[in-house]
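pinging the channel bc i need a second pair of eyes. not urgent but kinda urgent?? the chain im working w is below, pasted from the shared doc
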Amino acid sequence: MHVDGSHGSSHPHPRGDHRAARRRLAWVLGLTLAYTAAEIVGGIASNSLALLADAGHMATDDLALALALLASWFASRPPDRGRTFGFQRAEILAALTNGVILVVVCGFIFWEAVHRFGSPPEVATGTMAWVAAGGLVVNVIAAWLLRGHAHSLNAKAALLHVMGDLLGSIGTLLAAALIARFGWRWADPVASIVIGGTIVFSSARLVLASIHVLMEGVPAHLDPEQIQRSLQDLPGVADVHDLHLWSLGGNVPLLTAHLVLDLSVRAPDVLRAATGTLRTAYGIDHVTLQTEPPDFNISGIVDSPKASP
């Protein structure tokens, strides 16, 4: 039996990029914390459920961004003796937690909105509109700060929170305009339900994506059957089996596989070709490959030809 392993870097993004992303997350967290307080005060003062719903979403954004910052810091820590893969799964746990919290918050929003349909209260549309307009400005700035820096599922979750808030601010502004122009007080609970529906939709996708990573599912942008065919097409490779493809943090794929080689080729040459193909064609840098001769059986013993009688 001939066994060789090849390991590439498991951190394709420069460490400086991660630090820049954390700084931007910190700025966005400061902005959203300040305006969450403003929206809560404005929602209570104007008696607007839509504004309070948006404030509730921003509050979950604050938690999401705080978790994203903490998880990003943990994920950047090097592996140790107890965690040889490092702490990249911390970002996935944070993303999953954020998604569950968002769904719970939306449940409370829906409950209150249904009760308000029966007897919609008076709403101070002026205060409601001004606070929502300020929230729109804050969310546009936050989205701009995070744009282009959402490399991980955790960072994408943070951006998704901000985009949901941006839509919430637009919905609240629209509700204020309808109430002020036509007296449609039901527009306030309708806007809160629309905002909550948007949040639930994005949260469900976030939760499912997080569970997929935790279950060591194949990254969405990669096809294991196509990868296996590419490896089998390499000169000297007779077969490929036990191919496993997964991700630790949602953005860094890892692969292991067994390559059955013809006896006429050198294993190091095949390994160089295989790792080069995986890196250039599929962006997979962290690879572990085991090479086997054609007569290698499942017990790990090479079948020797029997002597003639």
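so The beta strands are 237-247, 253-261, 286-292. and Residues 15-214 form a domain with the Alpha-lytic protease prodomain-like fold (CATH 1.20.1510.10). — does that match what u expected or am i reading it wrong
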